[in-house]
Design brief:
six-stranded parallel beta sheet, alpha/beta, 236 residues, 11 helices
Length: 236
């Protein structure tokens, strides 16, 4: 018996969890800043800290760091340009899956398990990445920012996902790699798994909120789930 055999529905965040795209978002923000004549952001770790904290934290940090830029340019215009830069990055860069992802997705497909991507990213970007990766194409459904109202850490995206699979929802498991993501997931009936190494306080707090924490998908095991009494899922 494998640990995933007890679950019927698998819900996955996308950026940084399934695919190593966060470096692409970082590059896109820096390319956008350069387009407007400004110096790049700080370190990648600083960028991730803001991006994983909340949907507003990165925007607030950029406003604070570049007051002259946002004194003349609205956020929506800046973000639209960033999305264009990120799409260009997606189209020319390798789609690198995170450790253990390909093996897990192939196993779920072999057992005909239902699955969904549940992300804040737009559908165009997810479809672009998915079209270039055979393992990602095994995922049953894509739920993107166009499908729900309130972003993570609100549970709207995951509640929407669960409604799409009424027969499987009682045995659902979800996977996240950010604090705001795990806050969203833990407000639902799904078993929550936090995939992340401990690198800064919010990641540690996210791990504490989850039913399971592991550094990667490859570190998940039957014994880990059994030790927490989670082999049958959480139920409604």
């Amino acid at each position: 018996m494998d640990w995933w055999s007890s679950f019927r529905l698998f819900l996955f965040d996308f950026d940084g969890l399934l695919v190593d795209t966060e470096k692409g978002h970082f590059a896109a923000y820096n390319s956008t800043l350069a387009h407007y004549g400004y110096a790049p952001l700080g370190t990648f770790s600083q960028f991730i800290a803001y991006a994983h904290a909340s949907s507003q934290a990165l925007q607030d940090a950029l406003h604070g760091r570049y007051p002259k830029l946002f004194g003349t340019l609205c956020w929506d215009a800046f973000y639209q340009k960033k999305q264009e830069m990120y799409r260009e990055w997606l189209e020319k860069s390798a789609i690198d899956l995170m450790p253990g992802v390909a093996s897990l997705l192939h196993s779920l497909a072999a057992e005909e398990k239902m699955s969904a991507i549940v992300t804040h990213s737009c559908r165009e970007h997810i479809e672009t990445a998915r079209g270039r990766s055979a393992p990602l194409q095994t995922i049953s459904r894509i739920i993107t920012r166009e499908d729900y109202d309130l972003p993570k850490p609100a549970p709207a995206c995951y509640n929407y996902a669960l409604r799409q699979f009424p027969e499987e929802a009682e045995q659902a498991i979800g996977f996240e790699d950010s604090f705001r993501g795990i806050c969203s997931l833990e407000q639902t009936q799904a078993t929550s798994v936090f995939i992340q190494k401990k690198s800064y306080p919010l990641w540690e707090e996210g791990a504490a909120r989850a039913d399971i924490h592991a550094p990667s998908f490859s570190d998940l095991s039957l014994d880990l789930f059994a030790s927490r009494g989670l082999l049958q899922g959480k139920g409604p």
